[in-house]
Write a structure and sequence with these properties.
Distance between the termini: 28 Å
Helix content: 25-40%
Number of strands: 12
Strand content: 25-35%
Largest sheet: 8 strands, mixed
Structural class: alpha+beta
Shape: globular
Number of helices: 11
Order of helices and strands: HHHEEEEHEEHHEHHHEEEHEHE
Amino acid sequence: MKNNALLDEKPLVDSYLNRGPRPLSSFSFVSLFAWCDFFDFEFKVINGCLCIFARGDQGCFLYLPPLGNNFDSSTLDSAFEHMSKGKSPRPVNRIENIPENLLSAFAPGRYNQYSKPAEYLYRKEDLIALKGNAYKSQRHDCNFFMAHHGTHSFGPYTDADFGPCMDLYERWADNRAKASTDEIYLSMLQENRLVHARLLKFWEPLGLVARVLKADGKIIGYTFGFSVDENTFCVYAEIADLKIQGAAAYMFKSFCADGQLKDFSRINTMDDFAMPNVARAKQAYHPSGLIASYTVSLKKEDH
């Protein structure tokens, strides 16, 4: 199920997401839609719960724990049985993106539990004010950018910005690739070419808040995100010209201060992909908390 066909399922997914808390950024249709170039998604209601299956070359998994009513062991049994059908190799069958408050539903005696990289949560006012010694470096970067780019602007993304933004991504990704030999990171750069293109192309029906940073009339950065819940906004992507000092810091601060984010008190920047350099960058903004996430699979005796 691709593109517009998957968009048709947005009302269904949203209706189930709205029935309970959305602790992780993955509890969003945007997060789901981002990966439709890589997986075929299937939606199945089991015991009153919506199960979102993602099937790809390596098999099938449940993208989120069952949504809606409180699920029980029979719901999980049915979900794993459904995952094992077809050509999917059973060892990859699993349930992803499980928040800590639901982990107790997966008894350790029957399920393997794996901790995933946690998501970073910040107080929005801290990211806007950048007060004190803790944010000295970020203030310097923002001030440097403003001092050297007096003709800059930060404003709404439009469809006409798609080409320049993707050109910027290509330059950014190529520069990042030259500086890394990590195969996982290099693969992520390739995957995100498709992810960013898909989300920027369908930003409007997805309800994304997207912005571009320009200097001398040229796009030197773009960022976009979405509402996780009534208090939390997720900054999903941020790409800035690596040759322009302070552009990324200035864009992040400006996005947090954007009028369309005025009703949110918290900013979620997702996880660090277990990469030390990404973790250092996110820790440098002093998160107010980390949100745990887990994956579970059936133990061997249950296969």
